[in-house]
Amino acid sequence: MKWFARKRIGSAPSGGSAAEPAENGEPPESPPPAGPSLVQTAEPILTATGVERHFPAGGQELQVLKGIDMQLYPGQLVMLKGRSGSGKTTLLNLIGGLDQPNKGEIVFRGRPFHELSDWERTEARRKEIGFIFQSYALLPLLSAWENVELSLRMSGTPHSQWKSRIAHCLELVGLGKRMHHRPFELSGGEQQRVAIAKAIAHRPSLLLADEPTAELDSQMGAQVMAVFREIIRTEEVTICMTTHDPTILEVADHVYEMVDGKFVTA
Fold first, then answer.
1. What are the C-alpha distances in Å from 98 to residues 8, 29, 113, 126?
2. How far apart are CA 223 and CA 180, in angstroms?
3. Would you say 29 and 226 are in contact if contact means Cβ atoms under 8 Å apart?
4. H/E/C letters for each residue in the chain?
5. Residue ranges of the chain with per-residue pLDDT less than 70
């Protein structure tokens, strides 16, 4: 049994009440204050060992990842920090089974992702992993409700569970009063929160987010991080995200800094 010390700043204390959205449907601008806490964890949900990834470039090979070792534990908010080109997104794709390493191992919930077939990794993503993309990846002709519903359709969730689950997810991200609006009727921050609701609808154990606050101002970015903290508390999910924004690092449980395809220590 391992104990992991969280560096939680501004997150709800374990067992506390959920943060209530404002009356206008917006989530809190920042997580409610709380002191550091300890999280008891049994085993990591994901382990990467000696992961390398290279791509052909001009007749040579461009080595993007150069021996990555990391672990993700249940209930963590983990950030991959680094400049553009440092390898953050490549690593996130490997963790999510969208790509495979040239060398090394990635074990997700006891299964060797690096050895699974494309179909097996697709099934794992469909049912156990959620993705949040920088561009939101919402279908423009569908309402917020219908975009979240699409995630449940794809995961094979029984139809009888759709209505309550969609309403819960949209309420959780503070969009209870905007759930029937289409993306073009929503602000950037609201679209990002629809994307979050869509990503968690099928109850994944791992949520991966690529620069989720990059297109948002500081206030909207703080709201998204508050939503992430509430999701971890209520949905019991692990979140791993990439960022180059130093203003949001303080809410992370752990930060991996990447430089030229490697983790560096302060």
1. 30, 33, 10, 12
2. 21
3. yes
4. CEEEECCCCCCCCCCCCCCCCCCCCCCCCCCCCCCCCEEEECCCCEEEEEEEEEEEECCEEEEEEEEEEEEECCCCEEEEECCCCCCHHHHHHHHCCCCCCCEEEEEECCEEHHHCCHHHHHHHHHHHEEEECCCCCCCCCCCHHHHHHHHHHHHCCCHHHHHHHHHHHHHHCCCCCCCCCCHHHCCHHHHHHHHHHHHHCCCCCEEEEECCCCCCCHHHHHHHHHHHHHHHHHHCCEEEEEECCHHHHHHCCEEEEEECCEEECC
5. 1-42, 266
Q: Whole-angstrom Cα distance, residue 156 to residue 173?
A: 23
Task: Give residue 133's pLDDT.
Answer: 85
| pTM of the shown model | 0.81
What are the tens digits of pLDDT across the range 41-68?
469 999 999 999 999 888 888 999 999 9
Taking the C-alpha atoms of residue 5 and residue 114, their distance in angstroms, rounded to an integer, is 29
CB within 8 A of 81, min separation 6: which ones?
Answer: 88, 242, 243, 244, 246, 249, 255, 256, 257, 258
Beta pairing partners, 4: 39
Nearest to 229 by CA among 12, 58, 2: 12
Q: Fill in the amino acid letter for 125.
A: R
Quick check: 81 and 74 in contact, CB under 8 A?
no
**In angstroms, rounded to a whole number, what is the distance separating the alpha carbons of residues 198 and 136?**
10
Name all domains of the chain by residue range, CATH numbers in brackets.
2-264 (3.40.50.300)
* pLDDT the model gives residue 4: 36
Phi, psi (degrees; rounded to nearest 5) at 237: -120, 150
Distance CA 117, CA 122 (A): 9
Q: What are phi and psi of 259, to 5 degrees?
A: -140, 120
